[in-house]
Design brief:
Length: 407
Amino acid sequence: MAADASARAMPSANAAAAVPVCSKTHPSRSLRVLYVVSFLDLFAVSLIIPSLASYIKGMDGGAMLFGFIMSMYGFIQFFSAPIAGSLSDVYGRRTVLLVCMLGAACGYFMLALSWNIYIVILSRIPSAMFKHTLDLIKVAITDGEEPANRSAAVGRLNAVSNAGFIVGPMIGGYVSSFPNGFNYTALLTTLIFGVNYVLISLYYLDGTTMAMTKKADDPASAPHPDWRQIMAEAMSKVFEFKNALYETGPAKTLLLARLLLAMSAILYRSHFSVMLEDKFGTDSRARGMLLGYMGFVGAVGSASVGLALKWIPSERMLLQLSSVVYVVTFFALSQAATLQGIYIMLVPQIIAIRCCEIAWVAWISICLRRSPSVLFEQALSRYRQLWWPTNALAHSWVSRLRLRYDC
């Protein structure tokens, strides 16, 4: 769900630069363990995706309640992500990562032991508050790499974590197909977060943590954060997405168009499992296989962008062609009558969206004549979290209309 794998508004670039790089001590072990943790993180989260919606519906939680739970998750993350980032600037990435791992594990453990819908709702609160692990890992990776190597490091991190999303739904769907399978799946998710906690605590040290360890005997050297300033910085990060509105010319048009493209993707894919169950009567195993298939096609699509650019003369033309394919495949998916048709139409759609995402960044960088990553990621991440509540409620409203029409 929230598996989604997008960077949120986390620590600022200036704060990241102020942290001593961890590559000076135990470079390979400290950084390589983060790649392992990122794979396990997205793998664990994606385990519950194929069956969470049906689990909620099985507890007499209708479409409206499912929408409310998703809205609550996005609303909490909207405010908690900047706070987690600001705290990591003060206490170090490792400390906040450990707290987030522990908090997320508690949330999934509550979900595994839930026996009614109220416990399910309660379990999503700690998960939303603390599930900022991938964002913190991405910042920790950039802290530990030289500036020239950071883009390649983030690319490797995305590839490794996305591999977890390929395997996770298939295993989660298989386990969920057994009696009480969803509860076992959530327990497995909790266990994996526990493993990540151990890996971080044993093998990862960032610069801030190392400095605090050396001065542990000196109470005056301990951090004394100004909570008022931390909260002020966090709230400023919450609304950083509005910076896109101050761009002029083609840059503003490109950024707003990219947000609209993200809106369509989130609206469709966030409830993809519900559509598979309601329209095609699929079980959790079939949904998990299809979601894993989507992850694999997405990886192939990302790798195929370079080949596409060899045949298409410009990023602008690639964007135009990919957008047309995206619209056509959305319409075809809405009219698909069989699951085989879904499998076929997902190939051009996912490849098109990958081409769009990569071509957007390249073209925006040309229009802005500078790196678009900070502005673009702030705008997109804030937008995603704002759109989750609206998206979930819109889905519940459409579901109620469909049920009324069917009756």
